[in-house]
Specification:
With 137 residues, the chain is mostly helical. 74% of the residues lie in helices and 7% in strands.
Length: 137
């Protein structure tokens, strides 16, 4: 059991070095939410998702592994939606730009974005909570 914990703590530290809680909070709850998302932040989330999905980064503790898989899924869904509804603007930013002519489309896509943000943030908080409880880090 001790070796499993050491392995899982090492995985957590590796993932946390890519995107710690304050960084994920800033990206999800400030940058994407306010529709002012930097390319660099997109890259951080993509790297984090990719790292969560790598076989060598799988947690041995099954509950943590499940929460990490759910987190990767929700963040992937969010980034996919961002790719559909954000446009590139000068100075390395992405900004929310669904159909500006049709206010119903705009409102529906804004609602969808907020739902995906909430799901991703909730999945992240759940993942962190389980890691803290199970690994005491």
């Amino acid at each position: 059991m001790h070796l499993n914990r050491e392995h899982d703590v090492a995985i957590f530290k590796k993932l946390d070095a890519i995107a710690d809680e304050s960084r994920v909070d800033e990206i999800l709850n400030r940058s994407i939410y306010t529709s002012h998302f930097h390319f660099e932040e997109h890259d951080v989330l993509r790297q984090f998702i990719n790292a969560l999905q790598r076989i060598e980064n799988q947690y041995l503790e099954s509950v943590i592994r499940l929460k990490a898989e759910q987190l990767a899924w929700e963040m992937g869904e969010l980034l996919s939606f961002v790719g559909q509804t954000f446009w590139s603007v000068p100075a390395g930013h992405l900004t929310f730009h669904p159909d500006p002519i049709d206010p119903d489309v705009y409102d529906a896509e804004r609602k969808q974005l907020n739902e995906k943000l909430e799901k991703a943030w909730d999945a992240y908080k759940t993942y962190r909570k389980v890691v803290n409880e199970r690994l005491m880090v």
